[in-house]
Design a protein that fits this description.
By secondary structure, this protein is of the alpha/beta class. It folds into 2 domains: 117 residues, Aspartate Aminotransferase, domain 1 (Alpha-Beta Complex), CATH 3.90.1150; 257 residues, Aspartate Aminotransferase, domain 2. Helices cover 38% and strands 16% of the residues. The chain has 12 helices and 15 strands. The strands form 3 sheets. The protein has a 7-stranded mixed sheet with strand order 4-10-9-8-7-5-6, sandwiched between helices. A 4-stranded mixed sheet has the order 1-2-3-13. β11 and β12 form a beta hairpin. The protein starts with 18 loop residues before the first helix and ends with a helix.
Length: 440
């Protein structure tokens, strides 16, 4: 039997619901496809958001420490104003001359290493990864894709087929090879780089023997779905070199770690001292407005552009570009990366102090404001770790603080607040987590 793909979800009949929410769920179930899930044992019902907070119909505020899409906070007034102003003027596509498109493209490219100097816009992270795979396969002449063992890269047919996180019912492509990460396997940091490179080389050899060849190593540079495995710095470099030696391209999926979430860098791959061939963007790029991109080296981007078509009615539309431009302005002007670094350190210090008082925290990993916190009592079986993590998440939801879980066993808390969070928000989170641990 395959594992529950969303353990932190509402199950009908498990909890008693208020009449208002019960009726809304019944209406929802009568018209929406059954693939949808409601998060938390008792679903949350929100009517507005502001900054770090979400509000239910009764005015109760919930502190959002999970939603990395509005990385500048919910309903940022300056971002919303840029969106509305452009929507009130014109919404057009990339087939017309538009200076703001070029202005933003130049500003975005300036945040990358010099080698990455071309950009193509998309609407979502899934679409970005889909396009990056097309480019890599055309340029390399191969089909094989190497991913981490619990990776998630999107929902289109092509990227779902390289996303083992989606579960057994979603069949992986025969050209996909999964590699284990040193962290989840318990490999010491001193051996992590050699372990990862050996995994990559074995995958390359298998793809070659089967006549498939390697087109790309596709990786989320913070390995968020695998449980947020951020260290040791540079452990992926040997694997990157091996893929390039075999003729493949390197695709860094920055949909989650990008746009300053790690604090010390704008892009997660920079932490590892590498420069990919292609970088995929999404989620926080528009602070909630759907816009994404593929940024890459000139040679593969131009080869693809000369020999294949990519046109998208909405990708790079003027409203999305205006919104993304406002986001980038605020990130740079308001020193958001520095805030992410400082608040990440404050949260890390607080979690470490809490771990000394609570045996329920087994490990803490972070880069800036992206955390994986392993939950469970040492010596207990993994099933009990998972149950305890879910209890903590739902106790915090009842307390008005939102997080979720990640990792193959879903026993790691995934903590990724908007990058505008302040000391008081961190302290509220820590106090709620301590109460949840005591109750679990």
């Amino acid at each position: 039997m395959s594992k529950d793909l969303m353990p932190n979800r509402y199950t009908p009949g498990e909890v008693a619901l208020p009449k208002r929410e019960a009726e809304l769920i019944a209406r929802r179930d009568s018209v929406l496809g059954s693939s949808y899930r409601l998060q938390y044992r008792q679903p949350v019902h929100f009517v507005r958001g502001e900054g770090m907070w979400l509000y239910d119909p009764d005015g109760r505020a919930y502190l959002d420490f999970y939603n990395n899409v509005p990385s500048l906070g919910h309903c940022h007034p300056e971002v919303n104003a840029a969106m509305a102003e452009q929507a009130g003027r014109i919404s057009a596509n990339t087939r017309y001359l538009e200076p703001k498109l070029v202005d933003y493209a130049e500003r975005l490219i300036d945040t990358f290493p010099d080698e990455l100097n071309r950009v193509v816009f998309t609407c979502t992270g899934s679409e970005s990864n889909d396009l990056a795979l097309r480019i890599a396969r055309l340029v390399s002449g191969n089909e094989g894709v190497i991913v981490s063992s619990y990776a998630y890269h999107g929902t289109s047919a092509a990227v779902a087929a390289v996303s083992p996180n989606l579960g057994d019912a979603v069949k992986l492509s025969p050209s996909v090879r999964m590699v284990s990460l040193p962290g989840p396997e318990g490999v010491p940091e001193a051996q992590a780089a050699d372990f990862f490179e050996a995994q990559i080389r074995a995958a390359i050899q298998d793809l070659k023997r089967r006549g498939i060849g390697v087109a790309a190593l596709l990786f989320d540079s913070i390995f968020s779905s695998d449980g947020v495995w951020v260290d040791p710095l540079g452990f992926i470099a040997g694997g990157v070199n091996a893929v390039r030696e075999a003729g493949g391209l390197i695709i860094a999926d920055e949909v989650q770690p990008g746009f300053g979430r790690t604090g010390d860098h704008m892009w997660g791959f920079e932490r590892h001292g590498i420069v990919p061939d292609l970088v995929t963007l999404g989620k926080p790029m528009g602070n909630g407005f759907p816009i994404g991109a593929v940024v890459g080296r000139k040679t593969p981007m131009e080869l693809f552009g000369r020999t294949a078509r990519y046109s998208n009615t909405f990708a790079g539309n003027t409203v999305g570009i205006a919104t993304a431009d406002a986001v980038l302005t605020i990130l740079q002007r308001d020193h958001i990366l520095q805030n992410a670094l400082a608040m990440g350190q404050r949260l890390r210090n607080g979690l470490e102090e809490l771990a000394h008082r609570s045996p329920g925290i087994r490990g803490i990993r972070n880069a800036g404001l992206f955390f994986g916190v392993d939950i469970g009592l040492a010596g207990e079986p993994p099933a009990s770790w998972r149950a305890m993590a879910l209890n903590v998440v739902n106790a915090m939801r009842e307390d008005g603080v939102l997080i979720s879980t990640t990792g193959a066993n879903e026993d790691s808390l995934k903590v990724r607040p908007p990058l505008i969070c302040q000391a008081e928000h961190v302290d509220l989170f820590l106090a709620s987590m301590e109460r949840a641990l005591l109750a679990s």
